[in-house]
Amino acid sequence: MVTLSISSLAISSTCGFVVGPSLHSRHSRTATSIKASNANEMMPLRKGSSVALITPMTLTGDIDVAGLRKLLQFHVEQGTDNLCILGTTAEASVLEMKEREMILKIAVEEVKGQIPILVGTGTINPNAVKAMTQQAIDCGCDANLVVSPYYVKPPQRCIMKQMTTMADMGLPLIIYNVPGRTGVDLIDTNIAILAQHESIVGIKDATGDLSRVQTLRALLGDNNNDNDDFLMYSGDDATSLDFVARGGDGCISVTANLAPKVMHEIMILAKQGKLEEATALNKPLELLHQTLFCEANPIPTKWAAARMGLTKTAYCRPPLDELDPAFVDDVTIALQAAGLI
Question: Residue 211's pLDDT is what?
Fold first, then answer.
């Protein structure tokens, strides 16, 4: 077993929060809190359905602030278990730091304390990851999602260093393993080693290999006394029910943008072992799970959200664009099958 070195150095933020791994107790890792003079407190991430939230925009490409506030309240009302903001589905790669800050502040204003706020802070450059993570801390968010550095195809030890370096900042961290986008696969034995870090609280698995749920659980049982506390989220809507049935804890879902209440119910039922009921609820969504990826994410989802009246426009920032008319019928049929229009 590899023993991780955990820094005791605290990180001071511009908003006055003091964050460091020493604030995280091993027996309550998912109920961690960042404490400061204003008594800011983090919510633990929940098992269930986390929405990979889209960023609503105007026809000129600006962030639709009123629309964002509306979406955030919609997910609280619909029972979404966690918000995952500023990820791929949010078009985070084409958002400026000032825009990210505005989005985070709006999220905190609207839903802080009602639903955990998980923030995507991953990219290639470690300095940029640190800056985005610190921004999430400063704004009072609850956790961050860090993807393996993409395109450069780093070896395993480099991915692990990136994860532990960011986790040392003290914000609870979800590892994002998505080989199809990054070109590298963080192997299960190394995930189990990373799980020993007191601030690394879970993983978003987008490998598509359902057998890895049980493999990783077995490794965590050997290497980690907090096996049950290490959250395992599916990153693939089409297989998320099977993922939870095999021992996962939920999903980070694109479909949840459109059907949040049902996705929450499916995940909770599956976690309770009520697979027949979960399968019955999931059946009408099966076509939607697939069709929302007929073009690059989030193009179909933003079109569907506008079609449902959840947003005013389907605008995606370049290099993406609105849905190709050739796919409009496909997405419409999927929405009808799901009972959403």
Answer: 94
In 3D, which of 293, 292, 294 has the Cα closest to residue 304?
A: 292
Strand duo 11-12 + 18-19: pairing: antiparallel
> In Å, what is the CA distance from 279 to each residue of 109, 201, 267, 276, 336?
36, 28, 10, 5, 18
Cβ atoms of 146 and 173 within 8 Å: the answer is yes
Count of other CB atoms within 10 angstroms of residue 247: 14
Catalytic residue among 112, 176, 302, 315: 176
Active-site residue (options: 47, 112, 204, 302): 204
What are residue 280's phi and psi, to 5 degrees?
-65, -40
Look at residue 29 in the predicted model and tell me its pLDDT.
Answer: 38
Q: What is the DSSP string of 121-146?
A: ---S-HHHHHHHHHHHHHHT-SEEEE
The dihedral formed by the CA atoms of 97, 324, 257 and 334, expressed in degrees to the nearest 10: -170
- Give the predicted TM-score (pTM) of the model: 0.87
Q: Which residues pair with 234 in a beta bridge?
A: 205, 251
pLDDT tens digits along 77-131: 999 999 999 999 999 999 999 999 999 999 999 999 999 999 999 999 999 999 9
pLDDT of residue 41: 84
Which among 153, 125, 134, 133 has a CA at the least distance from the CA of 12?
Answer: 134
Domains parsed from the chain with CATH numbers: 34-273 (3.20.20.70)
The phi, psi pair for 97, rounded to 5°, reads -60, -35
Token code pair at residue 52: 């990979």
Distance, in Å, from the CA atom of 321 to the CA atom of 318, rounded to the nearest integer, reads 6
Residue 151 designated active-site: no
204 is catalytic: yes
Characterize the bridge pairing of strands 231-234 and 18-19: unpaired
* pLDDT tens for each residue of 210-229: 999 999 999 998 554 444 68
